Structure formats: C-alpha cells, structure tokens
Known about the structure:
With 357 residues, this protein is an alpha/beta fold.
Amino acid sequence: MNAVPMNCMQRTLTALGQREPDRVPLFLLTAMQGARELGVSIQDYFSRADWVAEGQMRLHRKYGGDCLYAFYYASIETEAFGGDTVFIPDGPPNCGAPIIRRFEDIDALQVPELGQSPGLLRVLQTIDLLKAQAADTVPIVGVAISPFSLPVMQLGFDSYLELMHEQPDRFQRLMTINQAFTVQWANAQLKAGATAICYFDPVSSPTIVPRATYLKTGYPAARATLAGIHGPTATHLASGRALPILEDLIATGTAVVGVSALEDLAELKAAAAGRVSLLGNLNGIEMRRWTPAQAEMEVKRAIAGAGVGGGFLLSDNHGEIPWQVPDEILFAIAEAARSWGRYPLTWVRDGADPDAC
C-alpha cells in the first residue's frame, strides 16, 4: 500500500522504474487547449512562449495531470528548414507546402541552426518558463520528430515513399541531415529544462511500413538518434500499432512506448515484461463522443490492462488530445484515474469487471 501521496515527478519515476507508485500517472497531453484557457486563438497562442507556458500551468492545475507538455505543433520543426505552417481555428496546425520539391533539393539541404528559428526558440523559452515554475516536481515533456518521420512533412507522403524505395543515396543523405537536426533539437530542449523527449515516429509503425522496411530504415535511424540524445526518451507511434515491432523498439534504448487504441494493453504489457513502460491508449478520436460514464469505463479498462506492477502511464493514443474533446470528458478521465488508478489496484487483482461502474 502506497499511503503517502507522491508528487508528479515521484509518481512518474516510480512507474517508469517498473514499480507501483501511489496511483497510475496521468499524462493528459493537451497541447492546443491552453489557447482556450487564455481566451485567444490557437495561432496567437503559439506565437508567444509565455502564453504557452501559462496555458500549460493552467491545464495542469485544472485537470491535475502528471506532466507539462511543451509540444507546440509538428511543423514547427519544418519551419526551421524554411517551411511554413497553416493554422486553423479548431485543430492542430499543419505544415504548408513541402520544402523539398524535387529530390535534387536534398543534395543542397543543410542542417538548420536552431538559433535561427523563432519557433524553436519559443519552445525553448516555454520549457525554461515551465522549469522555473515546476522545478523538479512535475515532468516536462519535450518533443522531437524522428528523422525517419520528419520527411513526411518535408516532401509529402507519396514523394517520401518514392524516395525511400527508389533513391537510396538521397534517402540516406536526408536521414543523416535529419538525424543531426533531431539530436541537436532534443538536446537543446533537455538543456532548457525538459525532463524527457517524446520521439514521435509514426512512419516506423507497422501501420505504415512493414517491419522488414522498418528494420532497414527507421530502426537504424532510431538507434543512432536516441543514442545521441542526452536524456530519457519515449517513442510514440502516434496511433500506429507497436506490438509487431515492440522488441525492436526496446532495442533502440527507448524507455517508454506510446501504443495504439487498436491494441490490447494486457497483451502489450505481457510482451513488454518490465523492459519498457507503456503510454496510452485512450482513443482520442472517440473521446470526442464519450459520455462521462464511458470515459470512466475506458480509463478502468486501460488500468486493468496495464496498470498492475507499474510501468504504465495513462494517456491518449496519439500524443495530442483533439480540440473538440469536451471539458467534462477531460475532467471525467482525470477523476477516474484518481479513483480507479490508486495502487495496489485491489479491484484489478480481485478480477473485477472493468466495465462494471
């Protein structure tokens, strides 16, 4: 029995150590919702580092989650390469036109300087502000897109697949450039105060490429990149399936794997066998239509599947909760995590039906 309440950092580190903390950590990955808290547009919100820091602190106090999320939007990384971002009023910003329009453009591509990218500098300032407020009591999660997944935004998906299969030399040059950028970007966030880096790598999922392709492409890129990052990493496949490559993901040295809502958490927990922690897997899309009772049931199912023994962080399956998820559902998720995630999870050990609320 863990009778003494832990702070967010203690709770998370205990879980990642494959031990049971006071309760299951809740990583409520709300990136855009800070704009709503401040009453500004999503575009305006991400234009100021202090607003994002304030938004994250308000969300942390509001829902009682166990992390602060320094993620802005994925295309902020392609902005460093000269790309732009398209903002919409009610969803995540998207990347504009590809920065690599012809494969020959890769021959002249260079690793961008972080200090020349206003967007990346804002993220670093946000992390610094969060660190000043949270100190070491709340984990601050930074984000870096994997060298293998970043080209989807740099070229467009169809062109990237063509490059991967038909232009091996240019593919390898792009991996080398992206790897240097990702390592540099991840380490800058750690230096600014991030506790860990979420390494988003959806293209590596068997949902997108076969394992045989991954082993020749995304896998060596991940091994080399994660080895260069001077802090803990969590590999997130952003809704993609993880189980068919779980052994490979563990071999990259990652500490956590973000798993899909389409996968069985109990099966994943058995396969992980205490060697890696799991993050997930509440369905963010379905979450928009849940009732509070459904939210409670889904939280119970997730905890029943992967909570026993630690090594589990409750979260959504994609790494970003949609803008349209109502407040009452986020409150219901947080309350259910506190109610049903309290260790030693006697109700799970006793074999109670998680669907019986």
